[in-house]
Amino acid sequence: AAFESLTSRLQSVFGKLRGKGKVTEDDVNEAMREVRLALLEADVNFKVVKDFIARVKERAIGQEVVKSFTPGMVIIDIVNKELTELMGGTQAKLAKAAKPPTVIMMAGLQGAGKTTASAKLALMLQKGGHKPLLAACDIYRPAAIKQLQVLGGQIGVPVFSLGDKVNPVDIARQALQHAKDEGRDYLIIDTAGRLHIDEALMEELRQIHEAVKPDEVLLVVDAMIGQEAVNVAQSFHEQLELTGIVLTKLDGDTRGGAAISVKAVTGCPIKFVGMGEKIEPLEPFHPDRMASRILGMGDMLSLIEKAQAAIDAEKAAEMERKMRAAEFTFEDFLEQMAQVRKLGPLDQLLEMLPGMGKLKQLKDIQIDERQLARVEAIVKSMTTEEKRNPEILNHSRRKRIAAGSGTTVADVNRLIKQFDDMRRMMKQFSTMMGPKGPKGGKG
Ligand code: GDP
């Protein structure tokens, strides 16, 4: 999958940092050296990498990390924020003309996914309550017009075409008039692509630009080609002031370089990403979400932020004890359930944890008073040894516990299963927080 190797390398760097109780300047330097290599290997532009590492180092060494009681988490947080910044910071929205139609010109090399992206964009707009019109201006690639018509038919968006004998500039101009006449509020122009950038192509694109004065010029680039995508974007941008980039094929096996460096190199933001061949609404690009995806954190980062804001050192030390998987007993489980209930809806918390897919069954834990009472009864029917070593709970023990607590063996089984799941979750949690957990006052 996309970013796979980058993500796993970054995670191993951060894992090492979290393993340390105290982080020194040397640790930060070493970690940054590895992050640098990981980014270069992911095909991120080397100058971008250099600046990025310098910025992260500066923030990391300038007190934030060394002083923190959760140094590993602070570094992840810094890297995440800088990565988000690198990719544009906030979501770059589609422009809107003061007077409709908003004209969007799609450009790109052949095979980048321009026609597909045009249809996806049309679908996105249509789902947003708009009335887009597609214009077929690629008269050179055999079947390009047909392809657009088929896609338009699939999604129920009209396609303006004058065949392949009319000049694309004229087609664009007439398409604009047609959009106005028909009250369409967006015009999406699918232009021709070539295998390579050449002067004839650029000239035609400039003429179309001149003729329809687009509000958006979106360059469609294939993320799979890595650095080359960035080069392509730069050349297009120099010749045809782009307003945004559509990065396609992010569903594929891309190493990530293009997504990370294209904004920094060209100054042009990624506005959308393509995630498949199927015509689905084009996905807006969110730098922050992409950063957490690259870091492999899911929404863990927002959880970290929440935790950092809400947990004081004293409480964190207490939590640390609880989260140590090895010490986690059925008694802690009881307490934990009561605590989690105070934190807010359990399933919301779970959704923020990475790798939660496997633990979906945890969602079945309904924490209400009655259930807590039953859990309590079951736990109280266990011997101390059973509470500490749930592994020994064989069938006859379970039967005894069920009888003792006035529940059924199925109830007991369910609880043990939930306990195991919870324990696994705690383990994940404590890995996130480092083997020592957040550094509390008592260390
Ligand atoms: P164009 O020449 O730039 O108009 O490219 P097309 O839209 O015809 O797409 C070229 C090929 O890439 C087609 O086989 C598409 O199905 C495929 N494609 C386009 N976008 C994506 C994407 O986001 N993911 C994947 N996996 N394939 C894509």
Low-pLDDT stretches are 343-366, 435-443
The CATH architecture term of the largest domain is 3-Layer(aba) Sandwich
Q: What oligomeric state best describes the polypeptide chains here?
A: single chain
Q: What would you call the structural class?
A: alpha/beta
What is the count of DSSP helices, taking H or I runs of 4+ residues?
19
Question: What's the Cα radius of gyration?
Answer: 28 Å
Tell me the distance between the termini.
39 Å
Q: In what range is the share of β-strand residues?
A: 5-15%
CATH fold topology of the largest domain: Rossmann fold
The CATH superfamily of the largest domain is known as P-loop containing nucleotide triphosphate hydrolases
- What's the overall average pLDDT, rounded? 83
**H/E series, N to C?**
HHHHEHEHEHEHEHEHEEHHHHHHHHH
Helix content: 55-70%
Shape descriptor reads elongated
CATH class of the largest domain: Alpha Beta
Strand order of the largest sheet: 3-2-4-1-5-6-7-8
Keywords:
about 450 residues, alpha/beta, Four Helix Bundle (Hemerythrin (Met), subunit A), Rossmann fold, 434 Repressor (Amino-terminal Domain), eight-stranded mixed beta sheet, 19 helices, elongated, binds guanosine-5'-diphosphate
Structural account:
It is built from 19 helices and eight strands. The protein is α/β, with parallel strands linked by helices. The protein folds into three domains: 83 residues, Four Helix Bundle (Hemerythrin (Met), subunit A) (Up-down Bundle), CATH 1.20.120; 193 residues, P-loop containing nucleotide triphosphate hydrolases (Rossmann fold, 3-Layer(aba) Sandwich), CATH 3.40.50; 134 residues, 434 Repressor (Amino-terminal Domain), CATH 1.10.260. Strands 3-2-4-1-5-6-7-8 form an eight-stranded mixed sheet, sandwiched between helices. β6, α10 and β7 form a beta-alpha-beta unit. The C terminus is likely disordered. The site of guanosine-5'-diphosphate (GDP) has 18 residues, from α5. The site of guanosine-5'-diphosphate has 18 residues, from α5.
